[in-house]
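F.,

This is the one I mentioned.
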C-alpha cells in the first residue's frame, strides 16, 4: 500500500475515533485516573469500563440525537455504523453494573437521570436543559464531576473532607474551562435562541472568563490541607495546557482543535502524572 493510501486509511480511522466519541470517553476515563492518583484510592476496573463504554453511548446519543446539525459523516452509512457501535458499547457498559456495589449503581442511575434531563424535554412543549446555553455548561460539568470525583470516592475515608470538596470544585471548574473552546467553535452554528456564553458576551469576553476560571482552578489547590506533590504537578500541567488551549481557541478554529486537542488535555495530564509518579 502506498504512503498516500496509508494516510487515507489513517484519516478514516482518526475521524471514526473522534466522531464515535471514543476520544471524549477516554478523556472522562483519564479524569477518573487522575482522581485515583491524587487520593491514592483504587477504582474498580468495572467502573472504568462502565464509564468509558457508557460515555461513548451517551455522547453519541446526545451529539447525533440532540444536535445533528453540528455533526455530519464523511461517508455513506456512517450513522448506521455509529448506531451499531453505540449499542454494543451500551451493552458492555450494562454488563459492568453486575460487578459494582449497589450504591454505586444507584449513583450512576442518578447521573443517567441528569443526562436525560439535559437532552429530553421535561414535558411536551418545554425545551430541554440543552436549550439554555449557560445551564448546559453547568449541567455537563456537574455530571462529569460526579462521575470522575464523587462516585469513585463515595465509599472512601476522604469523602466529605476539605480536600475532597476542593478537588470537586477544581474538577467542576476544569470541565467548564474545557467546554469554552467548544462553545466558541459552535457559536455560529448554535441557534441564537440557545443564548450560549459566547453568544451572550462575545468571544473575547468568553476567553477572559476562561482565563479567570483557570486561575481560580489553580488557586484552590493552595487551600488543601494535605496537598500531594503529584497533585501539584498535575494541576500545574493542567494550568499550562488549559491556558494554551484557551489562547488558541479563537475563531476560526482548525477542524479538530476542540474535539481532539482540547479533549486531549485530561489525557495528557494523566499521562504526565503517571510518568512523574513512575520516575519518582
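My design for it:
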Amino acid at each position: 500500500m502506498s504512503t498516500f493510501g496509508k494516510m487515507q486509511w489513517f484519516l478514516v480511522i482518526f475521524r471514526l475515533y473522534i466522531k464515535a466519541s471514543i476520544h471524549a470517553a477516554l478523556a472522562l476515563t483519564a479524569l477518573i485516573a487522575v482522581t485515583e492518583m491524587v487520593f491514592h484510592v483504587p477504582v474498580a476496573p468495572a467502573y472504568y469500563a462502565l464509564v468509558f463504554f457508557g460515555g461513548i453511548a451517551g455522547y453519541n446519543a446526545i451529539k447525533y440525537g440532540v444536535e445533528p446539525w453540528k455533526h455530519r459523516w464523511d461517508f455513506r452509512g456512517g450513522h448506521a455504523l455509529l448506531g451499531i457501535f453505540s449499542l454494543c458499547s451500551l451493552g458492555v457498559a450494562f454488563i459492568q453494573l453486575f460487578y459494582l456495589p449497589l450504591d454505586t449503581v444507584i449513583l450512576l442511575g442518578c447521573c443517567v437521570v441528569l443526562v436525560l434531563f439535559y437532552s429530553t424535554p421535561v414535558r411536551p412543549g418545554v425545551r430541554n436543559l440543552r436549550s439554555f446555553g449557560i445551564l448546559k455548561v453547568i449541567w455537563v460539568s456537574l455530571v462529569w464531576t460526579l462521575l470522575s470525583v464523587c462516585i469513585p470516592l463515595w465509599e472512601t475515608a476522604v469523602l466529605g473532607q476539605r480536600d475532597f470538596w476542593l478537588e470537586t470544585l477544581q474538577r467542576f471548574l476544569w470541565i467548564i474551562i474545557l467546554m469554552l473552546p467548544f462553545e466558541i467553535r459552535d457559536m455560529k452554528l448554535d441557534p441564537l435562541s440557545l443564548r450560549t456564553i459566547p453568544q451572550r458576551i462575545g468571544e473575547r469576553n468568553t476567553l477572559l472568563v476562561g482565563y479567570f476560571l483557570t486561575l481560580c482552578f489553580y488557586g484552590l489547590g493552595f487551600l488543601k490541607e494535605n496537598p500531594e506533590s503529584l497533585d501539584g504537578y498535575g494541576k500545574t500541567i493542567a494550568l499550562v495546557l488549559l491556558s494554551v488551549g484557551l489562547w488558541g481557541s479563537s475563531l476560526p478554529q482548525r477542524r479538530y482543535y476542540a474535539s481532539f486537542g482540547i479533549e486531549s488535555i485530561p489525557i495528557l495530564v494523566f499521562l504526565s502524572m503517571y510518568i512523574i509518579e513512575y520516575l519518582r
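The mean pLDDT is 87.

Talk soon.
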